[in-house]
Backbone:
């Protein structure tokens, strides 16, 4: 699979650009600020619906323009596929495949498989867990495109649950009046379990490649490891909530079995219910977890 032609309209600094590409290595050479990285970003966005430089998509639309277009002709097993993504400043974005409208924009995910390596990737190591979660979630969606829908559903449930917790905190709601919260708990556990399980599976798949890459450049015998630090284990919570009695010394979860994760999730939600009502916020789940890269024992 490779992209044989890329067309951009009102994307970043590309008012109207057509680029023919070949199978194998393609080099873009030019002065700074000419839009070389924007070409790479466009292909990456068409592949994953995420940018390695910014959150959201509004910044991808050229200033003063109502929409941006990314169009690519993809050669896949000797068959050409025309992909088109329309990013609208107002209104819904649109996706097409071979000129036919797709029901959902996320149906584009998986048609193009891509890996973007950029200077910003150092943030995966140096910055906070948000960067590491975004990294592994991107891999999960590329490996299993249907997971894009699971992430979307989880974000929706999390938003509704947080809204309910915040309201309960303000109104001091207790007892049977919290029955709605239990319904959101079930959905949170359902979608969250899928995310946690998929993350652990991807981390296990990456480990042999991480080990081989490290051994090719290292002069010591340290063994690199990928560990999944989970808010579902133990009595502690992530330390981003300002409570000195809590820290980020969470336990590592190694089991990707969904039944096991489901039970852990349910038990932890029950354990932290009082604190969640006190703070008006969901305190555990995949949005609180971290991917740890470690050398040595």
Residues:
């Amino acid at each position: 699979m490779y992209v044989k032609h890329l067309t951009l309209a009102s994307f970043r600094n590309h008012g109207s650009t057509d680029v023919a590409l070949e199978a194998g290595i393609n080099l873009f050479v030019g002065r700074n600020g000419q839009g070389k990285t924007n070409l790479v970003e466009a292909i990456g966005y068409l592949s994953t619906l995420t940018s390695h430089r910014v959150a959201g998509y509004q910044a991808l639309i050229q200033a003063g323009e109502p929409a941006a277009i990314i169009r690519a002709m993809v050669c896949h097993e000797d068959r050409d596929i025309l992909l088109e993504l329309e990013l609208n400043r107002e209104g819904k974005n649109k996706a097409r495949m071979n000129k036919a409208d797709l029901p959902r924009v996320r149906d584009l995910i998986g048609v193009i498989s891509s890996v973007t390596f950029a200077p910003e990737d150092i943030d995966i190591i140096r910055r906070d867990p948000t960067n590491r979660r975004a990294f592994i979630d991107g891999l999960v969606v590329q490996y299993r495109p249907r997971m894009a829908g699971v992430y979307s559903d989880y974000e929706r449930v999390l938003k509704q649950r947080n809204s309910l917790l915040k309201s309960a905190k303000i109104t001091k709601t207790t007892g049977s009046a919290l029955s709605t919260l239990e319904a959101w708990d079930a959905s949170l556990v359902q979608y969250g379990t899928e995310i946690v399980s998929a993350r652990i599976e991807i981390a296990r798949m990456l480990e042999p490649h991480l080990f081989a890459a490290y051994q090719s450049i290292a002069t010591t015998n340290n063994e690199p490891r990928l560990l999944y630090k989970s808010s579902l284990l133990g009595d502690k919570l992530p330390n981003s909530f300002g409570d000195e009695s809590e820290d980020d010394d969470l336990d590592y979860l190694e089991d990707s079995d969904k039944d096991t994760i489901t039970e852990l999730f349910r038990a932890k939600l029950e354990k932290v219910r009082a604190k969640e009502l006190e703070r008006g916020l969901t305190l555990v789940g995949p949005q609180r977890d971290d991917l740890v890269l470690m050398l040595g024992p």
User: Anything to note?
Assistant: The longest helix spans residues 179-217. Strands lie at 2-11, 14-20, 67-76, 79-88, 94-97, 100-101, 224-229, 290-295.
